[in-house]
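Sequence, please.
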């Protein structure tokens, strides 16, 4: 759900027009549209690079892990998930909201990885490495916009 959708649904649930404060939030959202699109495009264009470099960084920190076991299927599955989270971060940036992460990506996340016997501490560290790689592609201003979405995933895994 986007910030705009949230504003509209909130006003509609109270059978009212958006308040001046909500209109200002909407105006600010529109002003950052080009930035949000640029960030999402950069993530999309660099997903493979982010995953490859983030994985290499992670394996340096945690060499004994299922994704680095020598089993190509496990490695591919882990890297597929990392790419999926990068895509969800891009969705969230476009939406201006953590809702895509909350509704699509993190609901039941701990339970799922626990059932697969994947150590959560490893996933947290892997996401930190992915975040570091992604953030390194951006200016300080854009990094400030994208980093909290990766932090949201990290908190969900912690």
């Amino acid at each position: 759900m986007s910030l705009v959708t949230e504003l509209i649904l909130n006003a509609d649930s109270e059978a009212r027009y958006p308040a001046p404060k909500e209109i200002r939030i909407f105006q600010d959202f529109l002003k950052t549209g080009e930035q949000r699109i640029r960030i999402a495009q950069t993530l999309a264009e660099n997903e493979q690079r982010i995953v490859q470099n983030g994985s290499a960084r992670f394996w340096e920190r945690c060499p004994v892990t299922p994704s680095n076991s020598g089993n190509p299927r496990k490695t591919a599955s882990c890297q597929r998930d990392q790419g999926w989270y990068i895509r969800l971060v891009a969705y969230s940036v476009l939406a201006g909201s953590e809702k895509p992460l909350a509704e699509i990506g993190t609901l039941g996340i701990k339970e799922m990885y626990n059932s697969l016997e994947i150590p959560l501490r490893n996933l947290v560290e892997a996401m930190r490495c992915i975040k570091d790689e992604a953030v390194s592609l951006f200016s300080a201003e854009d990094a400030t916009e994208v980093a909290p979405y990766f932090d949201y995933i990290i908190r969900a895994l912690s």
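The chain has nine helices and no strands.
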